[in-house]
Amino acid sequence: IGVVGSEMPASFANEALKAQAVAARTFVAKRNFEVDDTTSSQVFQDESQLKQVWGEHYNENQNRVKNAVMETKGEVLTYQGELITAAFFSSCNGYTNNSEDYWSSKSPYLRSVESKWDKEVEGNVQQTTFTLSDFSASLGFQQAVTSISSPKRYPNGYVESILIDGISFSGRELREALSLRSSDFEITSDGQTVIIKTTGFGHGIGMSQYGAKAMAEAGADYQKILKHYYSGTEITKL
Hints:
alpha+beta; three-stranded antiparallel sheet; single chain; 11 strands
């Protein structure tokens, strides 16, 4: 309850909350129940923290989240009988990421799938401005960079690599070095500042939370949502 209530807005449709509950339960089970309460694992807040966050809506939100957890009690996602790494994120550019295009390992169930609903999410496209010196220093350059190439992209739009002063950075490396929202980005520079426009929020692997919300609002149940984002998986009892 403390994870679902922290990782997904409690106002989301019930079937989206149920999908999040199954993903969260799978995630922690896959890690043998050894996790922390940060984005390194899964964000968790206890009852007192959620009361602060939700305020006067605490009882209503708590009931919504608790129902989603209890209605999926014990349910987890498996692929060929094994628990999956049930990654999830906020929103994407219209397609999710292949695991090996961002992480090093390829998972048969973490495939790039369409998530067209994300394009309509308010604030999905963000622009960040850096001074040229801050941009350069963040990437480890001693002096201001003079050359930024056009990014090389995967078919789904995420950046595969980009050359900066002759040095190649992966989309993930640039995202993490600059704390960008997404590895789908465009870069422009006027010689004094660097403007980066990102689309999506998160690594893009696994389930899109805003995609789950939209699917639920369109009538999809949580099983359909999960099987859309986690290719070839089954929902089983823990």
